[in-house]
Amino acid sequence: MENNLFDLLVHPIRLRIVTAMSNDQMTSKEIAEALPDIPQTTLYRHINALIEGGLLEIVEEIPQRGTVERVLGFKTQPSLQPEDLIGLSKDKLKDTFTLIMYTLLNEALGTLDKFPEDQEIDLLREGFQFSECQLNLTDEEYNQMNQKILQIMVEAMNHKPAPERKRRIFSYMFIPLAVD
Q: What confidence tens digit (pLDDT) does each residue in 56-95 have?
């Protein structure tokens, strides 16, 4: 079992589970429906690892035809803190960036694969958005910008599912171009 939040989260299947859940409470069945490519036994093993690691908890048990369906929720926010990042080797960080980028690419390709081959995709209408730019920021400006982005993201994460809402993955990354 992993000894900290970093080790718990930095796993391709557990990262997908956490991303699928966002701020929602979900049953194991709902998680399985959101991640149909993961074998059920593998999925349940990783859900249990997230529970044992203290990230998820059972918030409700619903009797279902002779069995009990567990509703899962976050016991703590799935957000890495500075103490989770102390002492990481360059290789471990490279592996982590690769995992995050691979997971994001996988989600995008999975969405694109749902469209017929001969269909032209209107990216903006479908809700795809991506951009990249270089910014010149002092440390204070960077921290202020990052806090604003986090505040907007947390507010949006509090929106409950509704018929008019689409689930979307929001990902952002700051990469310093020069190391002092």
A: 999 999 888 888 899 999 988 787 777 777 888 889 888 8
Spatial contact of 60 and 71, defined as CB atoms under 8 Å apart: yes
CB atoms under 10 Å from CB of 149, counted, come to 13
Task: Look up the pTM and report it.
Answer: 0.71
CA 167 → CA 98, 112, 129, 159, 177, distances in Å?
24, 15, 14, 10, 32
Of residues 74, 94, 68, 69, the one with CA closest to residue 18: 74
Which bin fits 57, alpha (ψ -120 to 50), beta or left (φ > 0)?
A: beta
Q: Could you give the domains of the chain? A: 5-74 (1.10.10.10)
Q: Which residue has the tokens 């995050």?
A: 100
Which amino acid would we find at residue 5?
A: L
In the beta sheet, which residues pair with residue 107?
Answer: none
Q: Is the Cβ–Cβ distance between 61 and 70 less than 8 Å? A: yes
Question: Regarding beta strands 26-27 and 56-64, do their DSSP bridges make them parallel or antiparallel, or are they unpaired?
Answer: unpaired
